[in-house]
Amino acid sequence: MSDDFVLQRISASKREKLGSIESRRIRRAGRIPAVVYGHELEPAHISVDDHDLRDLIKNRERVFEIDVDGKVEETILRDLQWDTFGSYILHVDLMRINASERVTVEVPVTLRGTSPGALDGGVLEQPLHTLELDCLAHSIPDSIPVRINSLEIGDAIHVSDIEVPRGAKIHNEAEQVVVHVLPPQGVPEPGAEEGEGPDAPEVIGESESEEATEE
């Protein structure tokens, strides 16, 4: 890791007791129960300050250092458990890493711009909201932007069309659709011939209609 790259650091304390009762006591004291695992070491049960952790989340820091009684470790945020209403953090999972090593993480997809096809009445759908990205731990992007300014009705953007930061790789299948614009409901796909398909109504000519009436 280069000298000009500095990780954020928060303090942590070892948890001597485990269990739901102890976890509730820790949360009442303004701290969050956490576990640190990885690098073939025993999991460490710790607690971190709720305010410090929320600051990291607010700043979208996923890789940071924890100082556990003077022992500093580089970690990546792997999982957050929230209460039912998404107001309080109940528990956090951290994984030990070297910030210069490669990791595989889920990164959200952010759509940029406005689709002309959607403005014309098409239905914009986004089957993939996250992508599995392989990159350096200290270079994890907040999101992967996908521009949809050129999407007309019937157009699609696939995983193979996505640009990622230099050195990063996407693990999703190349042919997967990230976002596409479907025709308005009840309108056939572009290029489909009128009247074809199992649901096409039978057209009765004028003479046929008269014969049917006479019978």
UniProtKB/TrEMBL annotation:
Organismal lineage: Bacteria, Pseudomonadati, Planctomycetota, Planctomycetia, Planctomycetales
Family of this protein: Belongs to the bacterial ribosomal protein bL25 family. CTC subfamily.
Function (record text): This is one of the proteins that binds to the 5S RNA in the ribosome where it forms part of the central protuberance.
UniProt-recorded Gene Ontology molecular function terms: 5S rRNA binding; structural constituent of ribosome
GO biological process terms held by the UniProt record: translation
GO cellular component: cytosolic large ribosomal subunit
Entry-linked SUPFAM superfamilies: Ribosomal protein L25-like
NCBIfam families linked: bL25_bact_ctc
Designated name of the protein: Large ribosomal subunit protein bL25
Chain ranges of the Large ribosomal subunit protein bL25 beta domain: 103-185
Domain (Large ribosomal subunit protein bL25 L25): residue spans on this chain: 10-94
Composition bias, Acidic residues: 191-215
Secretion signal span: none
Gene encoding the protein: rplY
Record keywords, A-Z: Ribonucleoprotein, Ribosomal protein, RNA-binding, rRNA-binding
Oligomeric and partner information: Part of the 50S ribosomal subunit; part of the 5S rRNA/L5/L18/L25 subcomplex. Contacts the 5S rRNA. Binds to the 5S rRNA independently of L5 and L18.
Listed InterPro entries: Rbsml_bL25/Gln-tRNA_synth_N, Ribosomal_bL25/Gln-tRNA_synth, Ribosomal_bL25_b-dom, Ribosomal_bL25_C, Ribosomal_bL25_long, Ribosomal_L25_dom, Ribosomal_uL5_bac-type
Source species, domain of life: Bacteria
Region Disordered: start-end pairs: 183-215
Organism: Gimesia chilikensis
